[in-house]
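Sequence in, structure out.
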Amino acid sequence: MNQTAAPASRRLILWTWVFGLLLAAAFGGRLVSSVAFAYERGKLQALQTELDKLGSELAAMQNVSRAFNLVASLARPGVVQVVVAAGQYDADYARDQLRIYLRFEAEEDEALTDSDKAAMLKFLESGKREDLNPLINAPQRGSYWRQRLYRGGGSGSGLIFDAAGYILTNNHVVEGRAEVSVLLHDDRRYAAKVVGLDPKTDLAVLKIDAPDLHALSFGDSDKVQVGDWVVAIGAPFGLTQSVTHGIVSAVGRAEVGLPIPYQNFIQTDAAINPGNSGGPLLNLRAEVVGVNTAIAANEEFKNAGVAFVVPSRTAKRVAAELRSAGVVTRGWLGVSLADLEPDYAEVFGLTETRGVVVTAVFDGTPADKAGLEVDDVIVTLNGEPALSVQQLRGIIAEQKPDETVNVKYYREGTPREMQIQLSDQPKDFEAFARATPSRSLVWLPELGYGGRTFRPGMRDGKAFESDKARGVLVSGDEKDSARLGNFNLLIECNGEPIRSITDLRLALAKVRAGDKVKLKFRDPIGDALLVEREIQPRESKRKDLGSPQR
């Protein structure tokens, strides 16, 4: 090889590296970026390919999304914001505020004067607005009392259920309010008249005079199932036309700690907050299946994922009655009721563990006329199972006065059936109960006692609850009651164990009038008392059987 060529080759290689380094310095960053982009593009293409393979599933999801969009678009024109003005006087509200103040705050308030306290007590007795003047006109604290005793402003939601201008909302949104207005979806505002209130379901109907209204349709809440998608629309925190969604968490919720007598709520996890009250809960057909009413709030009084909704079955009926008459009429049996504890079902002779026990029957009521008795266990009414007192009362209340209902029940272990024509529910049950005679015991003519099968929750049997007592709680005349003292739970008759009125009747059927039987009683601490008693004629006159118990 030519020796002179070697240096030339080395120089060529050296210049090639130098030139490469110069190119790398000038374009290296761009080349690295291009390589990285190509790699990222490859990843994105792979993801897109995978997503394309899920096309059918994605289309289904898009259909669900479109359904929510359509429900919101169809329903929002029928949803309103209900606005109540501040500074309104309401005697009941002022009374409640003063009672709270006197009970919890007065002792700590150094500014409270004797004249202030006298004015408060006078108003609590009279309820007259002018009796508040010494407080609200006071030069030092008048503004405080006006703000405290006059209701503040607020808002809720509502739904148009009739294009003639009828709006359904919650009773607690408008009750006691002198000025109510309604803001429509297109920002039109109208003064509203309160047509009727129904505190027992927390519903109310308003009326506005406005053209071109969009009414929503009621769906069938009986078809609502746990897990169904639902949409809530309203004005939470005053944010009008807000739409949220969720699922139905439960149905038939009752006894949830709300001051609403008739509870049969739909429970949902849809985001419902203060201001949503009175707005609609809708299914995916844009039908109203309920009225949003209450929430189980966290410490900040915000949605905690549990909201309660009055079902459309109730709301539709109440709305129609309030619109036509301004009041709601309800069917009435004329009894006091108690839930049947499952552990005590067999004591009453039931093969099932559900039912509602009759604990008192009021004289002259439909139940009395039909022959329903204390200790009867109602299992169905018009074919619907009696699952609890709350639920059964709701079924009865949904019937019209004068309607006839079919009642299936157990008496002393025997299934029976009767037809009962309902009457109108008393407006004030407490006053009715005080003024109306009733019986809360089963008459036992052979013994001259009144009695009833023991069950947990009985007012006069609470002392026996801890040990799951069995027997018959009895009540005699003053002489017998004084002799028995606390020994009022009858547990044996002639050596036979007594768990119920049925057991006692079977035991007494074995003896004749004039014979003597040995009765064993016990008291709450377990001590026993033996009593010998002569059997009376079975036709002996029934005595006063007592006032109603739980």
